Every structure is written in structure tokens, then in C-alpha cells.
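Report of the visiting student (M.T.), summer placement. My assignment was to run the structure pipeline on a short list of targets and document each run. The first record concerns CASP-like protein.
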Amino acid sequence: MELSGSPGTWSGLSLRLGQFLFAAASVCVMSSAIGFANYTAFCYLIASMGLQALWSLGLACLDGYALRMKKELNSAVLVSLFVVGDWVTSILSFAASCSAGGVVVLFDKDAYFCSRDPHLPCGTFELATAFAFLSWALSATSALVMFWLLLHLD
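After the run finished, the C-alpha cells were exported:
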């Protein structure tokens, strides 16, 4: 049974590349925002998305290698490693995205910092947080696929 998003498949490679691209975009956009380091949630977002980007890029390279060499990556030990890594990075990404999203909502809708301080890069904070949520959505999908695959290995 080949599940969409499985390791060593084209869908798995595209899923990993999507995770990497959105995580890297989140890091790049947030690090371009002046003053992001003054807020713990945004620093945590960069750390979490950096880890997500490294994990996803590593697994994308492994998927690419498996596709090129026509190897299967469906051993129980390897899939178990993928499951643990995906779940850890997915939970960290979700926590970081939610905390950054909470700060963005606080700044814009609750405390009105964005309308009072035109130098605060609220749009940049929002964009980086949106990219982080997109990366998390792909990461959570990957984690569920890996868990399902592990349960159904022969």
C-alpha cells in the first residue's frame, strides 16, 4: 500500500519541500522585521521554524535520494524515526505559531499597538506567522501520514 506523502515518493518529497519552504519563508520574513527580538514569542517562532526547516530539508534530501536510487524507505525503524521527528517538530511548530499569532492579535486587535506605532512592523509579523501556520499544517499532515504508515507496515 502506497500512501500519499510516504517517504521515498514524489508526494512525500513535495510535502517535505513545502514544509521547508514555508518554514524558511517564516524565518526570513520574521528576521527582516525590525524589533522582533524584543518579543519572546517571535524568537521562539524563529527557533521552531529553523528546526522545522532543517528537519524537512533533511528528509526531503532523503526522499530525493530514495527516488533517484529507486529505494524504499518503509522499514519499521526508519518510519518510527520519521514519526517521532515529525510529531516533535509538528507540536513545536504549532505552539510557536499559536504564540506568535496570539501576540499579533494582541498588538493589532486588542492593544491597538499597530495603529498607534507606525514603526512597528505588524504586517511583517502577520506574514511570518501565516507562513509558520502553513508549514505546521504540512508538518501535521506528514506526522499523520507517518503514523498511519507505521500502523500499517507489514
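The helical segments are 10-32, 40-69, 76-110, 113-116, 122-151. Residues 10-151 form one domain. I thank the supervising group for their guidance throughout the placement.
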